[in-house]
Amino acid sequence: MKTKIYITAMLLYLTNIAITPAQTLSHKGLKDYYKNYFPVGVAVNLAALSDTAERNLICNQFNSITPENAMKMGPIHPEENRYYWRDADSIVAFAQTHHIRIRGHNLCWHNQVPNWIFYDGNKKLVTKEILLKRLKDHINTVVGRYKGKIYAWDVVNEAVSDDSTQLLRNSLWYKICGEDFIFKAFEYAHEADPNAILFYNDYNTERPGKRERVYRLLKKLIDARVPVNAVGLQAHWSLNEPTVLELTRAIEEYASLGLKIQITELDISVYPNENGNRALKDAENTAFTPERAKKQAEQYTRVFEIFRKYRKYITGVTFWNLSDKYSWLDNFPVRDRKNYPLLFDQSLQPKQAFWDVVKF
Ligand code: GLA
Question: In total, how many domains does the chain have?
Fold first, then answer.
């Protein structure tokens, strides 16, 4: 009898040893490796949520999500008196069911914005007063609907100009309101949900010229006591950018303003940045070669080392899309050119870059 119990116990013990490492590996996701650092998030759309394998990958790997498009002004508020909630609501419900936090994206942007907001019934541009009133209604309604469910909002997206001779982008928001639309957007968002963490979000925030302009805008907002809490570095990067120096300098400068930082839209294109001229050179060569895989893994390793080093300031890292099966970069800046910018391949399997990012 005793021998039998002993043998059973031994067997159980051995089985456990044999099983544990493999199980731990497959059940451990990015969110677990990084649990002492920051939440790791992913941008999602309804297509990803309706695919079982993708849904499982999201739940295993991530503890934050950002709706890729569903909360942008165009999709969610297509007409003045009509909101379209279905997609956004489904994403929020999914996240809540799985205890995943949600970043709201975004409240005021020059793209994916409905035309009606800028024009009156006679197709003339509206006054500043009317535009701000419409912005306020929009922010109140959207932020109000998800109050307590969405912990952070990208309030203003990409308002800073790429042109070094001007601080702000010459969008219709700017043409009609001057810089006030930025100040007001943050005030309205804060009124609608005083507990939400409010972000200014932009791209190329590590490139010296843009970095200085983003810094100037943020400083202006802070000096005017605008309720901005954090800055989002979109991080649409490539194999050769940003450099370690550029990234650390950007983080240190934004943090010196007392702001928290999140990496909000991370992907690393396998096509080197050549100031928008990458099309012709790479048009025929679109394979995910071992060389590209290696360089991409190295770039991911470098930037995650920096994220870990600055965890005091970095409160989240979000990938822009789940796997190489689908990325907005498949059509940008070149239409129909496949890209491989994420940590999971087209079959949802971890790439070399994944293993390098979790090895520390
Ligand atoms: C910007 C926006 C995102 C997304 C990407 C491209 O970075 O902030 O919402 O549209 O462009 O997909």
Answer: 1
Q: Is 345 in the pocket of ligand 1 (CB under 6 A)?
A: no
145-157 pLDDT, tens digit per residue, is: 999 999 999 999 9
User: Which candidate, 156, 191, 192, places its Cα nearest to that of 264?
Assistant: 156
Interval between CA 110 and ligand 1 midpoint (Å): 11
φ, ψ for residue 123 (rounded to 5)? 60, 25
Is the Cβ atom of 328 under 6 angstroms away from ligand 1? Answer: yes
Please indicate, yes or no, if residue 166 is contained in any of the structural domains: yes
Domain membership of residue 188 (yes or no) is yes
pTM of this prediction? 0.91
Specify the 3-state DSSP secondary structure of 330: helix
Rama region for 225: left / alpha / beta (φ>0; ψ in -120 to 50; rest): left
Please indicate, yes or no, if residue 253 is contained in any of the structural domains. yes
Ligand 1 atom 6, closest CA: 328
Residue spans of beta strands (DSSP E) within the chain: 40-44, 64-67, 101-108, 152-157, 197-202, 230-233, 236-238, 260-269, 314-319
Please write the tens of the pLDDT for every residue from 289-315: 999 999 999 999 999 999 999 999 999
